[in-house]
Amino acid sequence: MSDQNTPPGPQFPGQGGPQYPGAGGPQQPPQFQPQQQPYPPQQQAPYQQPNAPYEQVQVGGGWQQEPPKKQRGKLIPIIAALAMVIVVAGGGIFAYGKLNGGKQPDAVLPGTAIGYLRVDLNPSAGQKLAALRFLMKFPSAKDKLKLTGDKDDLRQKIFEAIKSNDDSGDLKDVDYAKDVKPWMGDRIGLAVLPAPEGKKEPGVVFAIESKDDEAAAKALDKGSKPDEKAGRAFSDGYLLVGETQAEVDSAVAAAKNGVLADNEKYKADLAKLGEPGFATLWADFAGVAKLVGDKAPVKANPVGNGSVAAALRFDAQYVELKGIARSDQELVAKASDASELVTKLPGTTAAAVSVSGVDSSIDALWKNLEKGEIGDLVQGFSEQTGLKLPDDLKSLLGKNLSVVVDKDASAGPKIAARFETDPAKAEPVVQKLTTLLQQQSPVQVPIETAKDGDTLVVSTDKDYAAKVLENGDLGDSENFKVALPDVKGATGIVYVDFDNANGVLEAIGEKTSADVKAIRSAGLVARNTGNFEGEFTLRVVAK
User: What is the domain partition of the chain in residue ranges?
Assistant: First the structure.
């Protein structure tokens, strides 16, 4: 089976994420039902490049050309265009300002919602100016939105960009100044509702602030085919829109029995979150788990009954998503400090992940997963590999774990995993996994180790293993400090230095876009704050 992992980092308009090499393997026993191998047993698996018409063979071959994939047009009626205003404004501008008074979308959407997104499209003048200047650092955003300067109307630019790419022609007669601007207010909300009885897909309803209901109705009619009109309703200064009229009517009826603004769990989460920012996101774990249902490969809910809330906020130097999570069970162990590992990695690091309290977290997760249907799967895997789960996994990963990629990829990517564990117990597990890898993978990956009293390093390069075993100075890097200003007490950390990471990608034949080159660094930090609660911050820093 081949797999591809997308490296950490944001994606901007028009930019696809690069992917690392996949590796095929022989057929698994019948109980696992694997996918068919894409390569013969003795053939090297190529590096995959989804955005280029080539595949790079790692050893024993050159460039192999294949036809580029064609992009398909997407029908975008006016309501989809308004939805894109939410997505682009909330995910690309990252601006926020002080919320004006008045009713929010959560006051008209049902309290039964399992997911919610709110965007205020009228930030303060200073924030709007900063957002425009931030966006103009990214060539694709500047080009696609046709940004010209500080006085641009972002909503108009977004709408016109969507209209220019509307192959369906639904928007050809819709004029932003005449048909949208007169009625559309500043606030937009989106609610994900439980799947109706007898259906598997959830309902999705938009609530768009309306200053003129009659003008809003005319705009919807103008941007929709007669036989493809979206469902609609007006409620307390908002236009509610859904895929069908029945879906919207059901949402209106549900809201009469209670709106999201009065949902106790939702209210508590937003109070804990604090400043809502330009955009607010919220989700209910139990509702999402129920929605996933039979679609999940394992019927278990590893996060329990709880919720998550987050806000998008903007600074002149970076964009930030800050959030909190609550559960009725421990999501991760509150143990050692992950910062002690990641800050001592080599200063040449391109990307790193560091996690603390791994062994304790495995115990908690495993107990929950055992409530599901994984018993036969685990037994089959253990018999095939000779691994005893979860004990061998705990012996290998130990208390703390860091996985790191070096910027030097001239002789192939240098990757290492540093485990704070007992090497005497972990090395036999490494040997089992190495044997399994050699037997099943057509790519012979070198495995080197280095160790001291309580640390084991496993790497693709002998010298790099020794380097990672030593204490480095990554924590002193300016790129690290601006992306991760506060890592003390963290249970999980992810870091990417984009200058170093771009060098790795270019060394293996991947071309990085001008948008990615405009990013300096990015960091994600998560903490267990106790009482089954946690917090996280994702920050992306521009140059």
Answer: 78-98+110-310, 331-537
